[in-house]
Amino acid sequence: MKKPQLYTSDYLNLLYAVSRGLASLTWAASTGWARGDAYPPEYGKHVVYAAVRQIFELVTVPQTQAIGETTGEAYLSWCKKHKIEPSTVDLAEGGRGLFVGPASARNTILYFHGGGYNLGATPAHFDLLLSVVNKAKENGSDLRAMVLEYELAPHGIYPLQLKQAVAALKYLLDAGVQPSQILIAGDSAGGNLTAGLLGHLSHPHASLPEVSLSGDLGGAFFYSPWVSFDTTSDSFKRNIKKDALSIRALAAWSRNFMGAGKNLPDNYNTPKDAPAEWWKDLKVNDKDIAITAGANEVLVDGIREFADHVKVHNPNLEYVEFPNEGHDAYTMDRAFGLTGPLRSEDFAREWLLARVKATATVAPKTASKTAMLSAGAMAVE
């Protein structure tokens, strides 16, 4: 993706946005001691989220893309910081695979990053995947992750990102990786892409190549998936001050992704609205599906409805909400300097590890659902 060019007016707007963000931060910091239940219970999160929401309201996508790193740039910076040799592969349809972990590993997490389809991956994405790869090695299993660098909107619009996700999966299959050794996972917009790919495997999209699998995938993990572009659900009202997301930003991101009216919502790009029948005969065992959400995020009502639809024909899937967490917490919180422990992050790590196929005599150590719930997560049956 070629970065947008900024003009004087853009820099002035950025300066204004930052100043407004700092003003919101100052106000939240000075009045936060008296905040009520409509705000995050943690003081620091309340202050940071207030500033982030304000900045999201004012900064445009071109401005954000111009000053921020692309997924590829973030990956190279992250590799340099951790003294890791970068490993990438060019994929069909213009996508690129960015690897974390040994090239010899067969078990693979095919990961789709969030960012509203408009923003690139962050170091937090690679940090989490590296921690899973390293823990798998300790447990006697080999594992690598391939992060898809898909084209960001509005430079690429739907269904290009789904085409690139299909190309990434086909690359792994053509390389000899068995479906059972592949876990697909994604956060936020990456969760949207995970749902789109899973739907395509059972109901091939008319403009995408079909994918023939010799067996079920090893798992499908959804972390705060963006499953609907609707912003009228009740959780947008009750959680708007508890989350870092901005309704205005969400509207801009979805408009860019859909090509400003060039595409219509369908079962692939708005999976919440897909009927329960759509999720029948998925190419993954329902015991190997997990959907998570933060109880304080504005998207939680939509995620619950999505999980309910999927669960009709997949009763053993796991749906978990995490109290006092906002949207995409392990990415958003880390990106904005919040370093406190996150139950959702621990859950994601342990859930993925539990589905890595053992490649040595030492069985992987996994955390049970009971252990996760005792840590404070709330499972919704």
UniProtKB/TrEMBL annotation:
Q: Which PROSITE patterns match?
A: LIPASE_GDXG_SER
Q: Which UniProt keywords apply?
A: Hydrolase
> Known SUPFAM superfamilies for this protein?
alpha/beta-Hydrolases
Q: Quick check: keyword Transmembrane helix in the entry?
A: no
Xref: Gene3D superfamilies: alpha/beta hydrolase (3.40.50.1820)
Query: Mind telling me which InterPro entries this protein's record contains?
Result: AB_hydrolase_3 (IPR013094), AB_hydrolase_fold (IPR029058), GDXG_lipolytic_enzyme (IPR050300), Lipase_GDXG_put_SER_AS (IPR033140)
Q: Which Pfam families does the annotation name?
A: Abhydrolase_3 (PF07859)
PANTHER family per UniProt: AB HYDROLASE SUPERFAMILY PROTEIN C4A8.06C, STERYL ACETYL HYDROLASE MUG81-RELATED
Q: What protein name applies here? A: Alpha/Beta hydrolase protein
